[in-house]
Design brief:
TIM Barrel; about 20% strand; 11 strands; binds zinc ion; about 260 residues
């Protein structure tokens, strides 16, 4: 059996429900869980290095408070609670640029706690996996995450960004060529890049996903809902590619789509 985890990043208080519904209905209807990495209290003015506002803020409406908690969007929270195929993962705290690249363990710890508190007080279930904004961790923040989560999902790991005590394990994983590894009770997952990205050629997208799924025992597929609705307009061709992936995954007898919480169980 091969396992696939679908991870969609950046759901936040400003995410229109229709976007998630349009993208993920074919997954939910086929009983495939969708892991949403949810920003607990989104900062509304985060920009990329180019100066452009972050794509996941496209629905921001004129003047807005500096941060908006997920609980401030009851319609979205209700939708996520009603559709239990969505599994909630904590995605940073405010999703400021490289937020969890901090060397300050006390900051990382406070953001993790406050983020968790906001997800729970909104009425969402306890997240048991964590995704750092931009998949970027420092050694200090990784340590704080591992103290609280059984599953951490990242892109790849670099020795210099790991706590020193983890180095021998990391070297062992590298030598064995394993994408995923474990430190204590925490599982550290890698992914093969954002194969489902609007920046990638559409024609080879499904084949690349198939190669990744067939090439490993457990594959984390990462995507971003807002890329399918650039500045609010649905990108039909790209949405079609995502739905083709749903069809492929559902048709494979030896592939099971699971959630991060299935791993932590
Ligand atoms: Zn993100």
């Amino acid at each position: 059996m091969r396992y696939v985890i679908l991870r969609d990043d950046d759901t936040n208080a400003l995410t229109p429900v229709e976007c998630l519904e349009r993208l993920y209905r074919p997954f939910l209807d086929r009983g495939m869980p969708v892991n949403l990495a949810v920003i607990p209290s989104v900062a509304t003015s985060t920009t990329r290095p180019t100066g452009e506002l972050e794509g996941f803020l496209f629905a921001r409406n004129g003047a807005c408070t500096e941060t908006v908690s997920i609980g401030n969007n009851p319609a979205l929270v209700r939708y996520l609670r009603e559709n239990t195929g969505f599994r909630i993962v904590q995605h940073g705290f405010r999703h400021r640029y490289f937020e969890f690249d901090t060397d300050n363990a006390a900051d990382a710890s406070a953001w993790l706690e406050e983020g968790r508190r906001q997800l729970l007080s909104a009425g969402l279930p306890e997240p048991d996996a964590f995704v750092a904004p931009y998949d970027r961790y420092s050694a200090a923040s990784l340590k704080e995450c591992a103290r609280r989560f059984r599953v951490i999902s990242g892109g790849w790991y670099e020795l210099r960004r790991l706590p020193r005590a983890w180095w021998p394990r990391y070297v062992w994983k590298k030598l064995r060529g394993e994408p995923h590894w474990r430190v204590g009770r925490t599982l550290l997952l890698s992914h093969p890049g954002c194969l489902l990205s609007c920046q990638r050629p559409y024609d080879s997208m499904l084949d690349n996903v198939i190669d990744a799924v067939r090439g490993g025992e457990l594959t984390v597929l990462v995507t971003h809902w807002w890329e399918y609705f650039w500045k609010g307009r649905p990108n039909e061709a790209f949405i079609g590619r995502l739905h083709a992936v749903a069809e492929y995954l559902a048709s494979q007898k030896d592939v099971r789509v699971i959630s991060f919480s299935d791993l932590g169980a």
